[in-house]
Design brief:
CATH class: Mainly Alpha
Order of helices and strands: HHHHHEEH
CATH architecture: Orthogonal Bundle
Number of domains: 1
Largest sheet: 2 strands, antiparallel
Bound molecules: heme C
Number of strands: 2
CATH topology: Cytochrome Bc1 Complex, Chain D, domain 2
Number of helices: 6
Low-confidence stretches: none
Strand content: 5-15%
Helix content: 55-70%
Structural class: mainly alpha
Strand order of the largest sheet: 1-2
Radius of gyration: 16 Å
Length: about 110
C-alpha cells in the first residue's frame, strides 16, 4: 500500500511540471501548422515544406530522439532553405515533451 502511494505521488509531481494538456497546446500552437494536429504533416505548409508522416512507424523508427531534439531546438535546414525554424519560445523540457508526443501519433 505504501508503494502505491509513493508511485502515485511521484506521478503527480512529475506531471505537475508539464501536463499532457500543456504539451498538446504547445504542439497546436507551434508545430501543427506544418506537422498537422495528428502528426501526418497533411497541411498546406506541411506539404510545401515536406513534413513527413509521423503516424508512419517506419518514419518514426528512423527518427532519433536526441537528433529530433536538436532539430527542433536549433531548427532544420536543407541547403539554404529553412525547413523548420528554431523553437526559441520553448524550454528544453517542453521540446523533449514534444518529441515524446510525436511518438504517440503512431497508428
Ligand atoms: C514551418 C514548418 C514547420 C514547423 C512550424 C515545425 N516543423 Fe518540424 N519539421 C518541418 C520539416 C519540413 C521537417 C523535415 C521533414 C520531416 O522530418 O518531417 C521537420 C522535422 C521535424 C522533426 C524531425 C527532425 C529530425 O532530425 O529528423 C521533428 C522531431 C520535428 N520537426 C518536430 C517539430 C516540433 C516539435 C515543432 C514545434 C515546436 C515543429 N517541428 C515545427 C517543418 C516544420
Amino acid at each position: 500500500m505504501k508503494n502505491i502511494v509513493t508511485i502515485a505521488f511521484a506521478l503527480v509531481v512529475s506531471a505537475a511540471a508539464l501536463t499532457a494538456a500543456d504539451v498538446k497546446e504547445n504542439w497546436t500552437t507551434h508545430c501543427a501548422k506544418c506537422h498537422g494536429e495528428d502528426g501526418k504533416g497533411d497541411t498546406k505548409m506541411g506539404k510545401k515544406s515536406g513534413a513527413k508522416d509521423y503516424t508512419d512507424a517506419k518514419v518514426l523508427s528512423e527518427m532519433k530522439d536526441d537528433q529530433s531534439f536538436k532539430s527542433v531546438k536549433e531548427g532544420m535546414k536543407k541547403d539554404d532553405k529553412t525547413l523548420m525554424k528554431p523553437a526559441e519560445k520553448l524550454s528544453d523540457d517542453e521540446i523533449k515533451a514534444l518529441v515524446a508526443h510525436i511518438r504517440t501519433f503512431k497508428k
